User: Fold this.
Amino acid sequence: MPNSLVNKVAEVCGKSKDEVEHLWSQAEDIAKKQYKLKELSGKNYAIVTGIFKKSITNDCAKKLGWLQEDLQMSFLEKLLLESRKKKEKSDKNKSKNSSSDKDMPDAKEIAQDAIETMQMDKMNITAENKLIKNIFDLISETRASINK
Assistant:
């Protein structure tokens, strides 16, 4: 069990380290049974972590920022804030005529910003996935050469 994760969950959620370690052990057992694993390796710990995160209460997950709805909401809040800043900047560049919709960007601007942001996120995720795959391939090749 990763000590930093145990300490963080115990501290934020008001649980004992033993209690959190027990939840982690249960997540390991579930992962082994569900995926028919004899032992856990590096890439399988992502599965264990996912199971572990689902095993804690929603209140605790919310405090840790692990709830999907919180992630989606923070993305939308960030997107709206960026759109407002762009709108304010463009308004400053235009004449200083008063406008009733000056505070809020229109739906088309928000949608365009969302599309651009999601395209950038998709490119970043694709690049990260390729890097992770290359690392695992390198580890596999190294293990194979060591075992020869």
